[in-house]
Write a structure and sequence with these properties.
Chain B: It comes from Leeia aquatica. The complex is a heterodimer of chains A (381) and B (196). Chain A is of the alpha/beta class and 381 residues long. Chain A is built from eleven helices and twelve strands. Classes of the chains: A alpha/beta (381), B alpha/beta (196). At the A-B interface, helix 10, strand 12 and helix 11 of A face helix 3 and strand 3 of B.
Amino acid sequence: MSQDKGGSVGCVVPQTAQFDQPLLLTCGVTVPRYQLVYETYGELNADRSNAVLICHALSGHHHAAGLHHEDDKAAGWWDNMIGPGKPIDTERFFVVALNNLGGCHGSTGPSTIDPETGNPFGSRFPLVTVKDWVDSQARLADQLGIAQWAAVVGGSLGGMQALMWTMSFPERIRHAVVIASAPRLSAQNIAFNDVARQAILTDPDFHGGDYYAHGVVPTRGLRLARMLGHITYLSDDGMGSKFGRLLRGERFNYNFDVEFQIESYLRYQGDKFAGYFDANTYLLMTKALDYFDPARRYGEGNLSRALSRAKASFLIAAFDSDWRFSPDRSREIVKALTDNRLPVTYAEIRSVHGHDAFLMDDPQYFAVMRRYFDRIAAEGV
Amino acid sequence: MLTLRPEFLQIAEQIAPGSRVLDLGCGDGSLLALLQRERQVTGYGVDRDDANIAACLDNGVHVIQSDLESGLSMFESGSFDYVLLSHTIQSMHDVEGILREMARVGRECIVSFPNFGFWQNRWQILCGRMPVSDLIPYQWYDTPNIHFCTVNDFDHLAGQLGFRLLDKRVMHRGRLVHWWPNWRGSVAIFRLGQRG
């Protein structure tokens, strides 16, 4: 019944933007130069008014849609949402997706070789915040000749970036689409992040963050961190219906090997992740989540005051089974927006998929996204 | 696709141009879309139904998906000029609660509902059946409506809750009914203010 079966953007080639102007980070460190890897889909129109920025979540990157080569088995991480005829329709919008500063997929980050030393930055790479990302994204927009985004879109940590855009650069964003996100982390959220970080930091192969020089990676820690994270991305019901108490074999073995299907699944996810993600980037991105607090930066602790700077229209979406960033957290954002009389639509979508629902193909979710982008297009792009 | 009920025009007439409006149980957003066009209002609709959220987006209305039974905590006190509740009150559990919340967030409240005291409804009951009509298009066993009232009943409750009656209109088939409204009118529209 889903009407959202548009086409693919096809083969895409990542591009690299070089920035030689120093960037002062929130932590006080200045990055003298850096690069960001990004992809674009669709065409920028003549008056440069149809650009949409896609912000990635915790473990994300720039490859949001299409394939990297003809035989690519997996498409970009949000390929179901972005493409010709899809909710974020590349026949109307020029879509930009990037890998954030501090990432491990080509943008300057801890695993990048520091040209001054010839070694990876490792432990010397500074902590970045959502605000720093938004600042660096604004410079990418400058390079691409985009004075104002038609929309900035993101789920989870990506939604935080979209929200930050409305406060940091209110004139440069017409619509913010904030999905499965929160205005700041709760103590429970931070606690989960710290357990994940401790798994990495206490891995004997971590070497204070300079494991590159030792020819090892803290695989065990990263794997545990991802397993923990993964549990928080799913809902109990979703996990229950997919795995229940299914066993791999026929009976209990009374040992610590993999017995239940859920154990097998989590270990597989953990191993896969540890194989392609950088531990330092994971540390840095979870800290960016913890530090995110626009109310503190812009509103003396009051989110409504902080959002009084905003001029954008908003789509806020939450999923009822998401306990990591529950609908209550999204409603806090909605309240701050209505306090400021800002245009906002809020959709609370039923789903069993928990926090991860924002990546999945749900008819109501896609209907809301499609219609919201229809509206953006109708306003004139 | 807008569904324009005749009472919408009666409601629109009472809204000052440029006001802030909150439309509770806004359905597909038709009323708010009309008010945006005819009265240049700003504001939000509130509805809990998935299909209505999508329809509101189509109709150019900003809508907040929420169950009215859980109150209006998302809105600051006194933040709207008008709070509308059109053809929704009969399906609410906590009628007093929502009226109090409306009074909290809005300067004036406009409530419209099907009048159970309308003669055709009374006649159907006299004939031994629960009323079914254009305005009450449900059988007793599959109706979302749980709190029907008459014009007089609502008048009484509004008074009890301390509202000041600013305007009362009763209609049938798009026309105002002045004589014996509680008998001859199928739809009622009340505009209420705080007790002065």
